[in-house]
Structure formats: structure tokens, C-alpha cells
Amino acid sequence: MSGVRVDLGPRSYDVIVGPDLIASIGRHVTTRLDAGRAAIVTDRNVAAHYLEPVRASLEGEGIETIEIVVAPGESSKSFAVLQGVVGELLRSKLERGDVVVALGGGVVGDLAGFAAAISRRGMHLVQVPTSLLAQVDSSVGGKTGINTPEGKNLVGAFYQPRLVLADTDTLDTLPGREFRAGYAEVAKYGLIDDEEFFAWLEDNREAIFLGGEARESAICRSVEAKARVVAADEREGGRRALLNLGHTFGHALEAICGYDAARIIHGEGVAVGMALAHRFSAAEGLCQQEDADRVERHLEAAGLPTRICDIPGAFTPAEMMEAMAQDKKVKGGRLTFILTRGVGRAYIAEDVDPDAVRAFLAAELETSARTHASSLGE
Q1: Residue where a domain terminates, one of 121, 144, 172
Q2: 84 and 22: one domain?
Q3: How far apart are CA 254 and CA 264, in angstroms?
Q4: Which among 268, 292, 269 is positioned nearest to 279, based on CA atoms?
């Protein structure tokens, strides 16, 4: 078991990483919070594996529980589902000093976290992430929210948990596609500002996928990286925006796909987005083409998509540009991207020329069309 401290003064909290943490959640909660009741928010898939042991652990420590189970997938990050969760918290008469336990992946963490932030003007929140993406990214740092037809995560709040318990055993029941998607966020931490970590990932990717010490090390190092950024810039006024490497392109792809998991899930969007960010940086002369090629090779070796044509369906530069105009980093209507000067050298690029982005996307889509036509010819 390993621990990472997210240093936010009086709102600091621990991220505990290791095996068999689900069974001890009750003890971890009672040592930090004086809560008499808890609402466990989860989805149907996760509930089948972990709802009963979480409930038993909490109740074993004298915490009365209620259970709120939602449908799996991005469709649950909606106003309607949020209203249902908040309504259940209020009808059950949970108090501000009680706790909301977010048991699941990034969708559940974002949804339950936002519900905790707005119910009774703020209830205690404990994140229990069960996906790789949630363990290394979405459960840490306090971003919560839901999606709207206009874009991803456009309605939400910064609301820090009181504790994060990342039980690595839960990753053994994670579908392969979900694990690969989470790995994109792991790779992101190397690509932002830690080439040494990215090189370590290149050498240890297979071991990470197999589990054990390498996997736990990758999770801890990712959490440490995010904790440093969050402590320095909690509300994304500056450096924290670097954590969005790949997300401007990726969120646009997700929105165009209507958050349809059959076409794309978040980590896949991030993988394509990071590859696009590096190729665009190379096209603009900001980094070497070999840097972009290196990133693409690694993501492909991990089984992740790296091209728009890897995502089912049709896309146009116009709809990509329209979707990116809703990005949360847009300032005064000007596009802001996370670009790079090389592996591990990402930076915030403000007022990026939209014509350059549009031309780049047109070239990417033309290349995708040729590749698709060639594969059909074979």
C-alpha cells in the first residue's frame, strides 16, 4: 500500500493506492470523518462486483448506508441522472456531515462528486475509483461535473474529496478496452513534463498491463504528478491546464460521437487527441516529427487509437472546429491548445490560429480517407 498527499492546506487529503482496500474502507473513513451515514453511488456493472463488500465494510464500522445505482456509461453524466441522485440524497435525509462514496469509474466519480458538491451546499466525498483512468486522473483533483449536448464537462464544480482509495485489485475485473483507455492518461503524465517517466513506460508497458509492482508504480507516479499540479493550481488558472493535453481534440471527438461508447470512450479520445497534438506541433515546427512518431508508436503498442479514422463514423473539419469552440480553455473566443516542443515538453498555447488548425484537420481527414480507401482495396 502506498500513499500520496494532495497538499491543499486545510483541505488536504490522502490518495491511498494498493490491493485489498475495498475491505477496509469503513476503517479508513471512520479514522478521518465523523459520519453516521453514507450514500454509496455506483453503476450497475461495478455494483455487481463491489457494492456488497463496500456496504459491509462501512456498516461494520457503524456507518448506516443507502445505495444509489445508476446506469453505466457517459449517459449517466446528465442533468436528469444528477437530479435523481441529489433527490435520493435529500429524500434519505442525509446531512451535510454524512458522506457520499463514489464507487466506480470516472463517470460515477464525476457525477457523485458533483452531487456531493451541491447537496446541502456540500457533503463529505470519498472517491473509490475502480478504473485505471479514475485511479490516475479523475478521482484526484476535485473536478466534478456532467455533460450537456453542448459539450463534455461544461457543467460542474471544483470540489475536493476527503479521501481517495484506489484499490488496484479492482482493475483485475476491468474490461481490456477500459484498461487501455485508462493507460492513455498514464502516458499523458510522461508527455506533459516527464520524459524519463515516458521512457520508463516504453520499457515497462507490458508489465503494467500484466499487473503487480509495475502497475502500482505507474499509478502512484501518475497520482504524484497530478497531486503536484493540483497543489500548485487547484482551479486551473494556469499550469493545471497542462493536464488537458489531448483533451481539446479528444473532447470534440466525444461530443461529435454523442458520447456513444460503441464509437469512443474518454481515454480513446485522449489518445487520439495526444497524437493529434503532437502531429500538429510537428506540422507547426514546434517539435520534431520523430517526437510525434514516438508518441504514436507507443500509444498504438498499447492498443489505443491514434488517428481520427480509428474512430467509427464520419467527421469534418467544420464540426471539429465547432465542437472545440466549446472547450473550457477558450478565452474571448480564442482557441487554446496544449501543444509540445518535444516529449515531456508540453506547454499552453494561447490564441492558436484557427485556420492552421482547420487546415491540419483537413489534411488529417484526407489522410484518413486515403488510408481507409487503400485498406478496402486490399
Answers
A1: 172
A2: yes
A3: 7
A4: 292
- For the stretch 117-156, pLDDT in tens is 999 999 999 999 999 999 999 999 999 999 998 888 999 9
Residues 99, 219 share a domain:
no
Q: Write out the three cell numbers for 232.
A: 500548485
Rounded distance, CA 140 to CA 102, Å?
A: 12
Strands lying side by side in the sheet with 99-104: 2-6, 13-18, 163-167, 124-129, 99-104, 37-43, 64-70
CATH number where 42 lies: 3.40.50.1970
Contact 104, 166 (CB under 8 A): no
Residue 240 sits in the same domain as residue 138: no
Which segments within 81-203 are labelled E, that is strand?
A: 99-104, 124-129, 143-148, 151-158, 163-167
In terms of residue numbers, what domain contains 294? 176-377
Last-in-domain residue among 126, 145, 172: 172
Tens-place pLDDT, residues 186-236 = 999 999 999 999 999 999 999 999 998 999 999 999 999 999 999 999 998
Q: Please tell me the total count of domains within the chain.
A: 2
- Does residue 162 sit in the same domain as residue 182? no
Contacts 24+ apart (CB under 8 A), 78-81: 78/146, 78/147, 79/146, 79/148, 79/155, 81/111, 81/146
Q: Is the pTM of this model over 0.85?
A: yes
Determine whether 40 is exposed, middle or buried from the number of CB atoms within 10 Å of its CB (0-12, 13-18, 19+).
buried
The Cα 118–Cα 123 span in angstroms is 8
CA 296/CA 148 separation, integer angstroms: 31
The catalytic residues are 121, 143, 185, 226, 236, 240, 244, 247, 251, 266
Can you say how many angstroms the Cα of residue 18 is from the centroid of all Cα atoms in its chain?
Answer: 19
Write out pLDDT tens, residues 61-102. 999 999 999 999 999 999 999 999 999 999 999 999 999 999
